[in-house]
Amino acid sequence: xxxxxxxxxxxxxxxxxxxxxxxxxxxxxxxxxxxxxxxxxxxxxxxxxxxxxxxxxxxxxxxxxxxxxxxxxxxxxxxxxxxxxxxxxxxxxxxxxxxxxxxxxxxxxxxxxxxxxxxxxxxxxxxxxxxxxxxxxxxxxxxxxxxxxxxxxxxxxxxxxxxxxxxxxxxxxxxxxxxxxxxxxxxxxxxxxxxxxxxxxxxxxxxxxxxxxxxxxxxxxxxxxxxxxxxxxxxxxxxxxxxxxxxxxxxxxxxxxxxxxxxxxxxxxxxxxxxxxxxxxxxxxxxxxxxxxxxxxxxxxxxxxxxxxxxxxxxxxxxxxxxxxxxxxxxxxxxxxxxxx
Length: 341
Known about the structure:
The protein is α/β, with parallel strands linked by helices. The chain has a single domain (15-248, 270-319), classed as Thiamin diphosphate (ThDP)-binding fold, Pyr/PP domains (Rossmann fold). It contains eleven helices and eight strands. The strands form two sheets. Strands 2-1-3-4-8-7 form a six-stranded parallel beta sheet, sandwiched between helices. It has a two-stranded antiparallel sheet with strand order 5-6. Helix 1 packs across helix 2 (55-62) and helix 1 (15-40) crosses helix 11 (296-319). It starts with 14 loop residues before the first helix and ends in a 22-residue tail after the last helix.
């Protein structure tokens, strides 16, 4: 499905890498399902946005990076730190606002960050990850490292001002950024066809003189291949790449706990069924079975292992303490109200 620029020949990941890909895809799916259950029980404050259905493009892209590389996410980013290698327990604790969370309970669902794996943070502000990624890439270039930064954003973010500013600056300065548009077809409930003048967002790359690709976001290996080539190009000092992954979210734009939402459906049953038939986890399981890497029984065992890991993460999150009131004034540039502990 790759389009818009000549792509390098396929390089198949090793068997152990592909098994790790499936493991991380299971982690994202099962963590988000656990988060939905906790939200429905009223444990999570505010809305949250799941990546269920988008695991292939998340893992395929993140596993093209080194642990020392950077990544920025968006409002739908529980899965991105997992794709980069983050542990599930501290992520779930953060969703619950607990002290043991990756941001000490101060970030929550839309503002996760895990510097230990290069996850610089996420934001509920549409398009906000792109300028941060450009800054991280500029830092790497000035420091003389060969680090790159992967910036995730949605099709709605592709129509925001930061998209143009970030692509233009990164292209002008040849910064090591990979811009990855997770095009799931909808900005909240507005279809891309109703808000965007082009069918493929990747064609916009030509305006900045950089390569652009559209890939099948449900195919983890295709995403991994294209992002790996973009990473190599960035490390070589050749500048940014724009990649669009066509994917789909299986649940609504956001979860609102136990609140019932009686709204007219904006997606047809036929459309949803067609995308459900292309579940990235099911597709990849078949690839692994067909290639003799992991048969169905072994894949089931791996899923059970990850389920136990997520269950333990839920227990860890539930048992963890909430922050004390004085901790609200920690981790600031200045503590305006010194409080006694």
